[in-house]
Write a structure and sequence with these properties.
mainly alpha, two-stranded antiparallel ribbon, 70% helix, globular
């Protein structure tokens, strides 16, 4: 499936309430932005981070050393930073939401279980990287590369499974006016993690994906955040894409303040209460969230 772009699909490739001192806009902007691009295009970032990781792994296999081992570890850390944020949103919010809205579809299709399987594979990668770092030889480098490439294959298969199942469902989250408030809650589950992960996502997208897909990532983030929140996220994202691409993004309005409106927050609170009752936190995700922390 293609990443979400500003003109539609492009060619391939519990949260605290807002501070009382800050007031959301009274009404949302009239132009509709595909805010679920935040989730879909994060997959593009994850694919890119895996390509970077494998590239560093191949370089290390060609020239095993402490320096190339450190480069692979750094690429792996970047990937895990983004993945942990993304999986937390899915496990704590998106999977429970879609299970509630669509007859348990996430659980029936075993997506929480796939997250647990992925965590086990992550441990194998970490062990291989640690072994290579401890003794950077040709043998340990080649063994590490095999494990990393196997992880890439299996993780991408998981991403494709999610995309085929979940992206059609995002279009059934009605009314569309609910979506920015919903994505806002996803982003504020862990604001610092959101800032780190979004910068990594757009860094990879800037060099691997069409401009319109990167543009939509910025616009979706802008549409789903309050001014102070977007102001916190934007510097890292801007730096990650580089000044040349930022100049193009700024012309498209990405430098303006966050556009989340009070009506978005109110509608999200209403829809969430209708689905889950009056409790503020999202329901605990099925066994996945707790087991990942063990």
């Amino acid at each position: 499936p293609s990443p979400m772009g500003a003109g539609g699909s492009t060619k391939q490739a519990s949260a605290p309430p807002p501070a009382a001192a800050e007031t959301a806009a009274a009404a949302p902007p009239t132009k509709q932005v595909m805010v679920f691009a935040i989730m879909r295009n994060t997959h593009e970032g994850l694919r890119g981070l895996l390509e970077t990781l494998v590239g560093k792994g191949r370089a290390a296999a060609a020239t095993p050393s402490a320096a190339t081992a450190a480069a692979v570890q750094a690429a792996w850390t970047d990937f895990l930073t983004c993945l942990a944020w993304h999986m937390t949103i899915e496990d704590r919010a998106m999977f429970p939401l879609f299970d509630k809205m669509f007859d348990g579809v996430m659980t029936k299709d075993h997506l929480p279980e796939e997250h647990l399987d992925d965590v086990k594979l992550q441990r194998k990668v970490q062990a291989a990287l640690d072994a290579f770092s401890a003794e950077p030889t040709a043998d340990s480098a080649n063994s590490m590369l095999v494990v990393v490439q196997d992880f890439q294959k299996q993780h991408v298969e998981h991403l494709v499974h999610e995309e085929k199942l979940m992206m059609p469902l995002t279009k059934r989250v009605e009314p569309p006016q609910w979506r920015p408030g919903l994505l806002h809650e996803f982003l504020v589950i862990d604001p610092a993690a959101s800032a780190a992960a979004l910068a990594l996502v757009v860094r990879e997208m800037a060099v691997r994906n069409p401009f319109k897909a990167t543009l939509m990532m910025f616009l979706a983030t802008q549409r789903s955040t309050l001014p102070s929140e977007y102001a916190m996220l934007l510097p890292g994202m801007r730096q990650a894409v580089g000044e040349e691409l930022w100049a193009q993004l700024e012309k498209e309005g990405c430098g303006a303040e966050g556009k989340l409106a009070q009506t978005d927050l109110d509608l999200h609170a209403q829809k969430k209460a209708e689905l889950f009752g009056e409790s503020t936190p999202w329901p605990a995700a099925a066994a996945a969230a707790g087991q990942q922390q063990q």
